[in-house]
Amino acid sequence: xxxxxxxxxxxxxxxxxxxxxxxxxxxxxxxxxxxxxxxxxxxxxxxxxxxxxxxxxxxxxxxxxxxxxxxxxxxxxxxxxxxxxxxxxxxxxxxxxxxxxxxxxxxxxxxxxxxxxxxxxxxxxxxxxxxxxxxxxxxxxxxxxxxxxxxxxxxxxxxxxxxxxxxxxxxxxxxxxxxxxxxxxxxxxxxxxxxxxxxxxxxxxxxxxxxxxxxxxxxxxxxxxxxxxxxxxxxxxxxxxxxxxxxxxxxxxxxxxxxxxxxxxxxxxxxxxxxxxxxxxxxxxxxxxxxxxxxxxxxxxxxxxxxxxxxxxxxxxxxxxxxxxxxxxxxxxxxxxxxxxxxxxxx
Length: 347
What we know:
The chain is mostly helical. The chain has 12 helices and no strands. Helix content is 81%, strand content 0%.
């Protein structure tokens, strides 16, 4: 092939890459807008005022720690794939994780789908297997959170007991009850699936050679492989180490924010644990913890003698630092992926 023959292909590749760059950049702007659209003007002013008086060196440290927490999360996710015979690169895994968190800021639960889709494209890991590992990962993190929740109760119960009764328990109960409020619908779904399983058992022999049946079967099997990947981890001690690092860095991100203000710099590790656990509940209840996370941090620190204004300012500092890190690194990851190549050599 001559040089003249290669030029049109090269030009077309550059044009396609540029278009993808614009699409990814526009997607990034859209997600930022979705994540910030619910902020009121007064809440935006509180964020600005908080940064005017805060110690920036601690904020920078918190952002760096946040990035490292996602580095360890990416390394841990790679371990999930080893039992299934996949060896994804750290680079693509990290990009996928960050884009996933970035997408979650705009549309809750979109991130899980997004990062599995990216791993399917760039690492050729079937989407169903990747999604199975994400579900397993979420269940593991929830287990760690529950352990930290009980540790907080055991060590800080004298300080936070009344606050849990008035604020946290009702919100958690409301979150749970919302999922199960329509008992008729739940009963109908159960009956539907029972009937579906019964009918499937009758006609399975007749349809097991159909392409649709085989495709659905492959999806279910792949999803199951992803779910059971935790039980087949080849390096369990390294897996535990990564998990401890992830949550340890989460704690340090919360605790070091205390040093942004003189009024909170003397707070104890117990206060940091309470802020981490209760603040995490705010993130679970609302997308990215928007609005609710700073309010919970404010109420939590009030129990430790911190004024209403300072507690709210620190809540906004902590939330903004974490969100800022996800937005910036998420956008960079999107842009880098737009120039990346998948396993087939396509950009």
